[in-house]
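re: ur question from earlier - yeah i can do the single chain one, its not a big deal. heres the input i used so u can compare w yours
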Amino acid sequence: MQVKLNVVVAAAAALLSGAAMAQDLVVKIGHVGPTSGAIAHLGKDNELGARMAIDDLNAKGVTIGGKKAKFELLAEDDAGDPKQGTAAAQKLVDSKVNGVVGHLNSGTSIPASKIYSDAGIPQISPSATATQYTRSGYKTAFRVVADDGHLGGTLGRYAVKELKGQSIAVIDDKTAYGAGVADEFVKGVKAAGGKTVGRESTTDKSTDFTAILTTLKGKKPDVIFFGGMDAVAGPMLRQMKQLGITAKFMGGDGICTAKLPELAAGTMADDQVICAEAGGVEGESKKSLDAFKAKFKEKYKVDVQIYAPYVYDAVNVLVNAMVKAGSSDPAKYLPVLAKTEGYKGVTGTISFDNKGDLKNGALTMYTYKGGARSEMGVVH
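and the output i got, formated as tokens:
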């Protein structure tokens, strides 16, 4: 009799355990970034931001529609390559993710956005700044940083008004991001009454810039703008030094990383490099960002490179919409996500306009002193 009773108790416990598990809601968040290749340090930074958000959400015990949510991160590597990016996007769609944070690059975010749109899955990029990303008419595409129109234009005006650039040269890496931000920079220069004396192109995988730099040197530029990433900007700065080019070197958020001095191998002069990060906080918000960076370093034993806080916010903005909608079903929470207004994140207040762009996006201007990044101020 006792054996039968034990069996009954065990069976009842199993049923109760199964019922409890059935109450849990598994929410899959996809993340895509280049965790291999030349800018793997940036992709890994992004992925760690996503993992930190997932860990924090699970620790909080978030409920969605009355069910306790268990968050899982599905991380993919796109190597910064558009073809690999679309393959990664399709893999996440096939895995039935509830939402996606990524991709890092505009060149991968743009083609991937169609795949997510076709599947009805919301995508928030923490770092894609090309204007085209949110201009394709896809209701599923959002970003939590300012776009190239704001970033490139601001830097162009800064080159003329603040740096007093008389002969401004431009180089881009032919990617959606690099060429796009360079185009906007040129528009900003012209709008401020300045002029460009030459434009050259390279690729995001090049290592030798002697020919294009020699061509530009003949034009005696006092400012050189580079549209591209830090993995190319570092060697370019080294070769500028070798050629005796002392021009100010400007760029967007792609070069504005903690790793740039290392990539430039100590050849940067103080205040030579001026760049802007698509995002910016000041006042009380800065305390939240500083606290995040300290927690990040304690958890992962590395410093934030650049975008990890934006990834962290993007994950939380997705989940905030799910909680408000009472559902993790993309079709049900997408309309709520689109109406995000006044969300307080570690990178500041997040609100989306009707294109999925960040309202009132700020920029933070930086230079480098003593081999370290130094903040110059926030521009709105």
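Confidence is low (pLDDT under 50) at residues 1-5, 7-22. not sure if urs matches, ping me
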